[in-house]
Every structure is written in structure tokens, then in C-alpha cells.
Amino acid sequence: MENAVGRAGEPIFKRLALIGVGLIGSSISHAARRAGLVGDIVGASPTPGTRKRAEELGLVAKMYAEPADAVRGADLVILCSPVGTYADIAKTIGPHLEKGAIVSDVGSVKSAAVRDIAPHMPQGVHFIAGHPVAGTEQSGPDAGFAELFDGRWCILTPGEDVDKSALAKLQEFWQRLGSEVEIMSPEHHDMVLAITSHVPHLIAYNIVNTAAHLERVTDKEVIKFSAGGFRDFTRIAASDPVMWRDVFLNNKEAVLEMLGRFSEDLTALQRAIRFGDGATLEKLFSEARAIRRGVIHANQDTPQPDFGRRATSDAKAPQR
Amino acid sequence: MENAVGRAGEPIFKRLALIGVGLIGSSISHAARRAGLVGDIVGASPTPGTRKRAEELGLVAKMYAEPADAVRGADLVILCSPVGTYADIAKTIGPHLEKGAIVSDVGSVKSAAVRDIAPHMPQGVHFIAGHPVAGTEQSGPDAGFAELFDGRWCILTPGEDVDKSALAKLQEFWQRLGSEVEIMSPEHHDMVLAITSHVPHLIAYNIVNTAAHLERVTDKEVIKFSAGGFRDFTRIAASDPVMWRDVFLNNKEAVLEMLGRFSEDLTALQRAIRFGDGATLEKLFSEARAIRRGVIHANQDTPQPDFGRRATSDAKAPQR
Ligand SMILES: NC(=O)c1ccc[n+]([C@@H]2O[C@H](COP(=O)([O-])OP(=O)(O)OC[C@H]3O[C@@H](n4cnc5c(N)ncnc54)[C@H](OP(=O)(O)O)[C@@H]3O)[C@@H](O)[C@H]2O)c1
Ligand SMILES: NC(=O)c1ccc[n+]([C@@H]2O[C@H](COP(=O)([O-])OP(=O)(O)OC[C@H]3O[C@@H](n4cnc5c(N)ncnc54)[C@H](OP(=O)(O)O)[C@@H]3O)[C@@H](O)[C@H]2O)c1
Questions:
Q1: Cβ of A210 and B136 within 8 Å?
Q2: Region Disordered: start and end of each range (chains A, B) (predicted)?
Q3: Where a domain ends, among A129, A152, A184?
């Protein structure tokens, strides 16, 4: 399939309403404007400061305090807030949605999104849950940028009875934002993302907290000598705590299943270390390289050493 | 202390012998030449291809198959090979070392380095173990670059009876390579690095292998959707298997102790997820942010979102 990155074209929606304008919402705004995808954009968020900033940045023509006010007249509504807010938002916007509108979301879990949103969708509105697999550790309206979705995958998890032309339209929308689109069930999504995103975040949070609470190594030492690998984990662990709380509360089974496997495998590695079994260690370490090669071949990461960080980390003397 | 990054000056050693010219050895060569630190550089490594390449790249004036041949006439010898090779190398070079020479290493573990090297050092030779806390996931003579040590810490772990002027000279050497120098005991080094480097690598290797052996999620899916966090772990897990095998075989106690703490803490997180304890999750996730801020403040990582990777990961359509 041809990739449509950055190709400006005809708008396919007259009005886009973004419920939440943080990292993902603001990036959608940047990328949709880059591609000329929508007539205009409005938004909603609870905090006055966020609303002011989103208008200042030109992310939206107008921000509303109430999601119900933002969705009026919108033919595309995307929930871009933490997953734990979905049920309330869906309930309040339901009665105000335009007939024929498409409602979607970007939440990192999908079964719970469907559970919380679908029941509140009126007849004639097309609900199709989605998740762009792209992000950074930053949040808020200033964090977004147009290129976030370029070359990344967006997963859509439509129900069986989905309107084919609504699905095609949403698919085109994400492609013109820069993504490739994959379709799967919400349950399978949650299993895949548990291992590729949720458990990685959990163990990153965990090791950072373990390091912060040692008696024999100070926080200052942990920070000073973090370039040996630890600093990579601190980046992921700087992600928004509320967003991630909601992910773990809403993808419990899949996360616990993957965590069980992780712990089992870690126990085996631990035993190999305890018994000095170098052959097992070397074998397991060697196998892990194949996956890295796959990630790079699939253009899902830069092949540059150290993420190309070399150029950006400057040669200043470290602060003691 | 003034930082001496990139400042060319008088040589402080007449001949540097590098035993091993992989990522670290070749980076020392680049940085030492940048700073005009040494008269000339020779090297040793077992593989003919590596020796040829190191000469082609101009990393050394001459490569030798035998470490004993490389150390003749050298007033600074640095072991830059996997830690498991140290005992044999120390034994074979011992009788050939110049009186007054400084012998050091760059190994990621220090108690074992001292255990394996010190007994073979003749009288009048100054042995001071060291570890530059800097690296990438790549290896071999082509992987090195002059900036690797800029703004990073190099830890030296001299014995109690160290010659003060030899220590000062080695300290100046590392500073002019671009590093700050910290002095501590080998035992404390191994504890600090267990949490800031060894356990992070172990859990990265582990989650990559867990992901590769699932029945319900294919390797292809793991790779495609790796941008949700997993790809960061694949980078670390692409590091050299032999080097890391030797690290775990030679820092067993500290790694097992830190791994025990990690697993305890992970169990607590797992319980919070199982029982839907959002307050505990949010609290633990929030705390992790402070350490990230510390790492950035100490100039041990770039403040740019996503390691600044945005600029380097290009917008090509991903390979299916
Ligand atoms: N970050 C990632 O890497 C990533 C990647 C893919 C998907 N996601 C998903 O994207 C969604 C948003 O994440 P993000 O990273 O963009 O978060 P973010 O930067 O923290 O932004 C969250 C936005 O949601 C708004 N919001 C919070 N409560 C709300 C409510 N009750 N009603 C309406 N708006 C509300 C916030 O507004 P105020 O500022 O006014 O509170 C803010 O604008 C989450 O569901 C997350 O799972 C995130
Ligand atoms: N990679 C990192 O991030 C990092 C960071 C700090 C410290 N260190 C430490 O630095 C050391 C080297 O790591 P590296 O990343 O530079 O590894 P590397 O790129 O794999 O290079 C290893 C070098 O050691 C040589 N070598 C292997 N066995 C040898 C022997 N018996 N005698 C002499 N030379 C031998 C290899 O030569 P052939 O190619 O001829 O086999 C190669 O030149 C290790 O002790 C490691 O713990 C690594």
C-alpha cells in the first residue's frame, strides 16, 4: 500500500473534535493540518490552562470545558484522554453526537475502551476504537508534533457490525496522518500491547523505584552512573502516571499473564547466574539480537548506535 | 574541576598498548589521538580480521596476535577485552611489562578484575583498575568514536597502596579523554553498577526473550508494534553476548542481590494491579519521574523527547 506521509489533500471530515489535547491529541492536530485532512478542529479539556494553551498554539479553533459542547457539529470525534475518563465522557457526549459521525479514541487499551464507550453510542453513530502505537515520554499540549505517527502503526479494533465506509474513512484518516493501519480484535490488541508496551513500562517504573530505595547505593550515584543502561529506563518511567495507572487498571489480565511469563523467564536467568552457567547466558543473550534486527528492518527504530543520541548529548561537564 | 574535553596537549604516555580494540578500545584510540595524549598506540587481539581492520582504520600503528608482544615498551597498557579473558592475559603479559608501566582495564566489573589481574603484576608496575561508564550496543573496531567518553564518568578502583603519581597520571588520561573521574572501592563499584547497568541489561535481555517465545503473540507482531516501548529494550539487548556473559559470571553476588530487590518490588506492583489499587500505582509511577529529572540535570542523558530519536527515525513506510 502506498504511504501518504505528508501529502496534503482534500479534507475528508468537516469538523474534528478532540476530547483531550495532550501529546496524542495535539499531535493529531498537527498531523491533520499538515495533511489538510479536516475543515476545522475543536477541542475539550477540563483544565483552563490547557484550554488556553491549545488555542494559543493554534491546535484548535476553539476549546470547550465540556466535551458535549465540543462534539456538536463534528463528523469525527476522537477521545484523546486517559482511558479511565472514557465512560463518563462517552455518557455525556452520547446525546449530542451528530448522526453519521464517527467516534474513535487513541487509548492504549482496547477491550476496556469498547466496554466503556460502545454502550453510550446512539444509533447512526459509528464507533471504531483505535490506538496509534507511537509516543514519547512527554505530555500536554506542547508535547505534540506532526511527525509522531509517521511510519508507525495505528491499530483499529472495529466491531463485527462495523459500517464498511466509516471504517475506510477512518483508515484513510490515519494513513494520511502518516501511519500504517492494522485491524485486529480488542482482545488481541490488549495481549500484543501488554508485551510490547505495558510490561516494558511496568518494569521500567519498577527498576527506577528499586534503584531509588536502596540503602547501599545513593540516588546521587544511581544518577551519576546512569549511562551504563539505567538512563534508558528513566526515560520510559517519566511517562504520565495517570495515563499509565489507567492502562494497568484496564488491562489487568493480559498484563498479569505477560508479567507471569517475564518472571518465570527471569527466574531461569537468575538460576543460570547463580550456578555460573555461562553457556545458557550466552545463548539467551545471543537470541535477543535477532529481534533487534527485526525491529530495525521493519523501520520501527533507528539503526544508529545509542538511538543516535550521540549527536544530541552534549559534551558539557556533568553536574556533580 | 575544569573539563578538558577535546583539548589537545602534550602526550603523557609514550606508548599505549590496547589489549582488545572493540568498541571501548577503539574509542580510547580515537579520543587519545584527539587529545594528543600518547606518542603511539599499538594493540593486540586474537582474530586476524580484527587486527587487519584496526590497522586499516588507523586505530593503532601495529596490531599483534599476542598481548605479550604488544606490551613491550608500553608505559600504559589497558585491557579492553571481555572480563573473562583477564586472568590469562595478565598472566601472559606480566613478565613482559616495562618497569614503571601503568596497567589498567575498562571492564564492567571490578572486584573480579582485581582478583584476576593483580596477582600477575610484577613489582614496579602500577595496576589500577578502571571502568568508563559509557557505551553503545555496538561492538568491534568500527564501533568506536572519539566522543564516547565526553561528559561521562570513569570510575577508578585503585588499591590502598597505590602509587599517587601513577593514579594522578591515569586520572589525567581519562579527563583528557573527556571523562570525569570518580574513585571508589571495587566492591562498591560492583554494587552501584549492578543496579545502574547489569540488572537493566539483564531485564532487557529477559523481556526480549519472553516476547520472542509467546504462543499468542507472534514475533512479527512484537516487532511491528515495538514502538510502544519494547524497542528501547531491544537496543540494550543487542549488546555483545560474550561481554555480558562475563559480566554476570563475575558480578554474581551484587547482581543477585539487586535482582532480589527488583523482584520484590515487582511483586508489589503486580499485587497493586491485581487488586486494582490505582492510588498505589499512580504514586509509584509519579516517584519515578524525580530520578529522570536528576539524570537530565546531571547531563547524563539528553532532555529531548524520545532521546531525540524523532529526527533520525525516518518517515519511510514500515516493512511488513
Ligand atoms: N503517551 C503515549 O505515549 C501514548 C501513546 C498512544 C496512546 N496513548 C493514549 O492517548 C491518550 C492520551 O494520552 P496523552 O499521552 O496524550 O496524555 P496527556 O498528554 O497527559 O494528555 C491528556 C489530555 O486529556 C485531557 N483530559 C484529562 N481528563 C479529561 C476529561 N475528563 N475530559 C476531557 N479531557 C480530559 C487532558 O486535559 P487537561 O490538561 O485539561 O487535564 C489532556 O489534554 C491516553 O488514553 C493514552 O492511553 C498515549
Ligand atoms: N560495550 C560497552 O558498553 C562497555 C562499556 C564499558 C566497559 N565495557 C567493557 O569493555 C570491555 C570490552 O568491551 P567492548 O564493548 O569494547 O567489546 P567488543 O567491541 O566486543 O571488543 C572486544 C575486543 O576484545 C578482543 N578480545 C577478545 N578476546 C581477547 C583475548 N583473549 N585477548 C585479547 N583481546 C581479546 C576482541 O578481539 P577479536 O575481535 O580479535 O576477538 C575485541 O577487539 C569489556 O570488558 C566490557 O566489560 C564495555
A1: no
A2: 296-320
A3: A184
Estimate the crossing angle of helix B278-297 against helix A241-250, to 10 degrees.
140
| pLDDT digits (tens), chain A, 320 positions | 344 444 568 999 999 999 999 999 999 999 999 999 999 999 999 999 999 999 999 999 999 999 999 999 999 999 999 999 999 999 999 999 999 999 999 999 999 999 999 999 999 999 999 999 999 999 999 999 999 999 999 999 999 999 999 999 999 999 999 999 999 999 999 999 999 999 999 999 999 999 999 999 999 999 999 999 999 999 999 999 999 999 999 999 999 999 999 999 999 999 999 999 999 999 999 999 999 999 999 999 999 999 998 643 444 445 54
Q: What is the pLDDT of residues A221-239, one digit of tens each?
A: 999 999 999 999 999 999 9
Mapping DSSP to helix (H, G, I), strand (E, B) and coil, where does residue B104 land? strand
Closest B-chain CA to A146: B310
Nearest CB to A211; choose among B195, B213, B286: B195
Q: In the sheet where B76-79 sits, what is the strand order? A: B62-64, B38-44, B13-19, B76-79, B102-105, B126-127
Predicted confidence (pLDDT) per residue in B225-260, tens digit: 999 999 999 999 999 999 999 999 999 999 999 999
A86 & A148 share domain: yes
Could you give the C-alpha distances from B11 to A117, B7, B105, in angstroms and in order? Answer: 70, 12, 20
Q: Are A226 and B197 in contact (CB under 8 A)?
A: no
Read out DSSP for A31-69?
Answer: HHHHTT-EEEEEEE-S-HHHHHHHHHTTS-SEEESSHHH
Which CATH number do you get for residue A239? 1.10.3660.10
Give the count of domains, chain A.
Answer: 2
Gap from CA of A95 to ligand 2 centroid (Å): 66
Confirm or reject contact between A292 and chain B (CB < 8 A): yes
Q: Look up the CATH number of the domain holding residue A167.
A: 3.40.50.720
**Are residue B117 and residue B264 in the same domain, yes or no?**
no
**Is the separation of the CB atoms in A26 and A177 below 8 Å?**
no
ipTM: 0.94
- Chain B's closest residue to A277, CA to CA, is B249
Residue B177 is classified by DSSP as T
Containing structural domain, residue B244: 189-276
Query: Is there a single domain that holds both residue B260 and residue B114?
Result: no
User: Is A108's CB within 8 Å of B228's CB?
Assistant: yes
Domain-ending residue, one of A126, A156, A184: A184
Give yes or no: residues A263 and A157 share one domain.
no
Note whether residue A308 is domain-resident: no
